[in-house]
């Protein structure tokens, strides 16, 4: 788990830079904002926006994980600044570019929250939830849908996890995802009725889910 004080210090530093970007955006200085974002990315990560956005999500994650685990500093800077870049493009009425930045940012936030088991009161969850809301009207790529499934279970939102699981299966059914679904329901069956109820779920629904998973295997 990331040290809470460390995250607070890093978030405070990022927040200071973001406040400057927000000021530019409020004055409709979107091009200046994009230039500033590029400079910040180069300063704090050694990578430009063009390079970052030229990589697939998977390749970007690999580049941030030289030892098999994401570099927290670089990952958080990139996730935060991509989100702001999406805001700038949204201000420019360029929905294609904003969507691309939002999905890449969400991908990194979800991976960071999963790998580091961030404290439940961290503001990083709010960042992720804002992105999920922004993208709620769009079709998400299969690899991000799969990470959302994992995220919802991690947060104890079991009904939403199930919905996202079947959304992912409809997009791209695979042996690995089917196995992840079976393991998900097995974990739920071991939980108390109270825990399941808090996640808007029940033991009966878990049993039904296992049967539905089997239908995808046939």
From TrEMBL:
UniProt xrefs under InterPro entries: DUF6483
Pfam name, any one: DUF6483
Source species, domain of life: Bacteria
Protein name stated in the entry: Bacterial transcriptional activator domain-containing protein
Originating organism: Dictyobacter kobayashii
């Amino acid at each position: 788990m990331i040290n809470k004080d460390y995250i607070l210090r890093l978030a405070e530093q990022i927040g200071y830079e973001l406040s400057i970007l927000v000021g530019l955006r409020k004055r409709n200085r979107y091009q200046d904002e994009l230039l500033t974002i590029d400079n910040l990315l180069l300063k704090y990560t050694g990578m430009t926006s063009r390079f970052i956005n030229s990589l697939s999500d998977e390749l970007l994650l690999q580049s941030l994980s030289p030892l098999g685990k994401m570099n927290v500093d670089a990952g958080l800077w990139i996730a935060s600044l991509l989100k702001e870049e999406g805001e700038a493009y949204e201000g420019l009425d360029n929905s294609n570019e904003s969507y691309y930045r939002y999905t890449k940012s969400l991908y990194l936030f979800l991976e960071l929250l999963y790998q580091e088991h961030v404290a439940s009161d961290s503001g990083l969850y709010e960042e992720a939830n804002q992105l999920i809301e922004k993208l709620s009207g769009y079709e998400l790529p299969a690899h991000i849908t799969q990470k959302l499934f994992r995220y919802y279970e991690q947060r104890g939102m079991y009904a939403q996890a199930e919905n996202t699981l079947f959304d992912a299966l409809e997009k791209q059914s695979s042996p690995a995802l089917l196995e992840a679904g079976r393991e998900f329901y097995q974990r739920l069956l071991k939980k108390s009725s109270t825990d399941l109820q808090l996640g808007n779920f029940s033991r009966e629904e878990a049993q039904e889910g296992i049967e539905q998973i089997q239908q995808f295997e046939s």
